[in-house]
Structure formats: C-alpha cells, structure tokens
Design brief:
It is a single chain. With 302 residues, this protein is an alpha/beta fold. The chain is built from 9 helices and 8 strands. It is globular and about 75 Å long. The termini are far apart.
Length: 302
C-alpha cells in the first residue's frame, strides 16, 4: 500500500465518511413515464439520476418533517412567551372547515398543461396550489375551490404532500368543460377584451395552471375562444402601475379573487396581494397596458 492510499484510508476512518450508494436504498418509489407506466430497470443514466433523487426524498422526508414539527413547536413556545397570537392551529382550522359558510363564487385551477411544463415547473404549480389552499381555508368566507384535469403526473407531484386528499379542494380528473355549465365559466386571460369589475355569484373563474415563462402566451385565451366560454381579465391596469412586468402567479390571482369577494376594494386588494418587488402603486388612469397572462409565472415570482 503506497503512502497516498494509506492517507486516504486514514481520512475515511477518521472522518467517518460515507458515500451514498445503491446499497443504502431500502425504499423504491419507482419511476414512471409520461403515460404513468412504471419504467423497467435498468434505467439509463438520466433516469437513474431522477430515481435516486426520489429515493433520497423518500428516505429523508420523515426526518425532515420531524425537524419541521420541532421547529414549529419552538416557534409556538416563543410566541406564547412573547404573548403573540399565531392564529388558529391545524386542528381548529379543520374544525372551522365544516362550520364556515362558503362563498357562492367558485375558482377552478386548470391543470391541463402538464405536458407543456418541465418537472421543475410542475412543482412550482403544486407549490402555488398549496398556497391557494392555505389562504382559502383561513378565510371567513372561502371560495369554492376546484382542480380540474387532475392527471397522473399531478397526482405523483402532489403526493409529496401527505394528506392532500383531505384538503378542502374538489379534485376532478375530467376537464371543467365536462363538469360545469358552460354559461357559468369565465376564463381569466390577459388577451381578453373584457375587464372584470366584480366577481359574480354562481360564476366559476378559471385560472390556467401554467408556468411556462411566457412561451405559450395567449394559450388560455385561444382555449376559451375555441370552447365558446366567457373570458375576462382582471382590472390591474385600471388601479395600479408596476415597476416590473405585470405577471402574476397562480396564488396571487387566487388571493385577489378571494379578497375582492370578501368585500375588499380593488385598489386595496391589489396593493395587499402584490409583492413589494413589483413596486405597485395606485394610478388614476384606465389606459395603462393590459395584464400579462394571470395563470403564468416568471422565474422570480416564487
């Protein structure tokens, strides 16, 4: 054994170095193709990298969640000591879900675009869906929240969040056009010439679940026209000016609908919801440029 090899062995023993290998795998979450079929082994190099990423997540998610729970308990303890109200806990929120009177206004998140997005962008959509659910369940008058075109890819992506089936969301595998009356549907799209002044009861507003970095601009408008359903855009340009592009995330659009339906004035709702980095400020002109696609998301919007 040469000196270099001996030094290397001593380093590994001293530092208790452990390299993650296939021998450490005790779970197999599997890897599926675009059609939802489980891929046979052996994988190619790219597939194996994705599979190992999923394995690492499965192995460490319980440990990670345990640490998150411990941190949450510590924050609650510190808040009680400082006499700070953190609002209702999960148990109270679950009980409140059955006691609240829901708004007659419905919102649909259309998830029919998963074939147009990368895995990374699909995860962004799930993250924004989670945010929509969170703010909705804390509202005194929550919206009727529906998810349509809930396909195999989305089910796999959202399965990272245990208990999603119990969220106060109506999941539909079919498209909204096959579920709801066409005359009640309104697709939100910046290309529409119709500007919303108020959200009508019994109407159902559709947000496109698409994070595509503006590669498919106008797609939601085209779909609405082809399906013969009403389309409209939010009156963003009428009330605020922004320093950045007028591109809103899914959860921003959802929260604007929620706040306005609760009775908040448009200008107050927009200033409250839009992030500070947008540099939004009130304007008094309705001739400003129109909205970008409300269902889309730019890189820095998360």
């Amino acid at each position: 054994m040469d000196l270099q090899t001996e030094k290397c062995d001593n380093f590994l023993k001293t530092n208790d170095f452990h390299q993650y290998t296939l021998f450490d795998i005790t779970v197999d979450p599997g890897l599926k193709d675009d059609a939802g079929n489980e891929l046979p082994r052996p994988f190619n190099k790219n597939q194996m990298r994705k599979w190992l990423k999923k394995v690492r997540w499965e192995k460490h998610k319980y440990e990670k969640r345990s640490k998150e729970k411990a941190r949450a308990k510590e924050r609650k303890r510190e808040a009680r000591a400082a006499n700070i109200d953190l609002g209702p806990n999960r148990k109270m929120l679950k009980k409140m879900k059955f006691e609240k009177n829901k708004s007659l206004i419905g919102v649909i998140l259309d998830l029919s675009f998963d074939h147009l997005m990368s895995e990374k962008d699909r995860y962004k959509v799930i993250k924004q869906l989670l945010r929509c659910y969170s703010i909705n369940r804390r509202s005194d008058s929550p919206l009727q929240f529906h998810v349509t075109s809930f396909g195999e890819k989305t089910k796999v992506d959202i399965s990272r969040h245990n208990g999603y089936e119990n969220w106060d969301i109506e999941y539909h595998e079919k498209s909204y056009i096959d579920i709801f009356p066409k005359e009640k549907l309104v697709y939100l799209t910046s290309e529409s010439e119709n500007v919303i002044e108020k959200f009508e009861e019994d109407n159902i507003y559709i947000i496109g679940g698409l994070v595509d970095h503006n590669q498919h601009k106008g797609l939601c408008y085209k779909i609405a026209v082809e399906q013969g359903i009403t389309h409209a855009q939010l009156p963003l340009a009428k009330y605020v000016n922004m320093k950045t592009r007028k591109v809103l995330t899914i959860d921003h659009v959802f929260e604007i609908i929620l706040r306005v339906s609760e009775g908040t004035q448009w200008d107050d709702a927009l200033l409250k919801v839009l992030p500070l980095r947008k540099g939004a400020h009130l304007c008094h002109s309705s001739s400003a440029s129109s909205l970008e696609q409300p269902g889309q998301c730019d890189d820095n919007s998360l």
